[in-house]
Amino acid sequence: MKFEEFISGTFRQQYQYKSFQPALINQEWSWGDPRINVLLEKATKAIGELNAFTLIVPDVDLFIRMHIIKEANTSSRIEGTRTEMDEAVLEEEAILPERRDDWREVQNYVNAMNFAIEELKNLPLSLRLLRHTHEILMSGVRGERKTPGEFRHSQNWIGGSSLADAAFIPPHHEDMPNLLSDLEVFWHNENIQVPHLIRCALSHYQFETIHPFLDGNGRIGRLLITLYFVSNNLLSKPSLYLSAHFDKHRGAYYDALTRVRESNDIGHWVRFFLQAVIETSESGKKTFRRILTLRQELDKEIVKLGRRAENARKLIMYLYGTPTVTVHKAMDILGVEYVPANRLIATFVEIGILQEITGYQRNRIFIMRRYIDIFRAENET
Hints:
Layout: E1 9-14, E2 17-22, H1 34-56, H2 60-78, H3 85-88, H4 100-119, H5 127-138, H6 176-188, H7 196-210, H8 217-231, H9 243-248, H10 250-263, H11 266-303, H12 309-321, E3 324-325, H13 327-334, H14 338-350, E4 355-356, E5 366-367, H15 369-380
Antiparallel strand pairs: 1-2, 3-5, 4-5
Helix pairs in contact: 1-11, 2-4, 2-12, 2-15, 4-5, 4-8, 6-7, 7-8, 7-11, 10-11, 11-12, 11-15, 13-14
């Protein structure tokens, strides 16, 4: 199927409304647009260079944890949550009661992503994996009554307050099994010659068009992109997420998906997707460079601490994975009493590694602001 000849689907009359029935995508794909060739080459190069960083950066899994937290925060924000990065790295008891619902949604996303990445070590990407991931994502938060972990058994819609004024109505639930089966086969079909970046672009469009869950489709659909990259070895670690790009260009993102359904313009969507991979990969490389620079600067500061340098290094390594700490947590990490733990944290505050954020005299929380700001800057680039 050539992109230029693609017919995206048809509208089917249901009771008092029409649902959109997308075309199947498990087939050979080609295109005549040379712009896609150029973007595909650039995107392949960019994601390869980003992946190289994950192979050479020491203790990279600590930094990947922050990538996942940042992605969880950004992807959830697209759906309306208002948790900030500073809040996302805190424990629940440190979150204001009125903001805990949003915080829990972000934490669910982190847990869902970690679960899915771990499962990919032993199992292929599959609908079953997406259902289990969705169950973790939606449990105990808003939307938990909308059958977490199950594909929908009723009609849903996008935009508007009802089917009568919906902006888009996905396929009827009775048509979903065939569509989802086709999508899953497409992920693993070795008999067709389609580059993985193109398959991933088409898969995200198709998943969002099917909208198989009652809630959480946007988050699972964006998570699917990273899972696809990892499962097909484009990434060794889950280091690339497109949510920040989609959020920054939200209007263009939704427009690109809509243009496929309304105008059959799959090429426009693929170009948008490839450009997102290019720009996000470049941003990710800058983030790793900033992390390495910060690490070198902190190592120089720690050397100056003399006998306390060993404990300082232990605490810094903990902070790279979880950039907030209390004195009592430092005691556990270092295996020391209150006074030396408190003194070390005080020293970290003096030299600018930590910042106290509660303003309290007791139960103080310290945050590694310079480190968190690196990931905040990535969202803004």
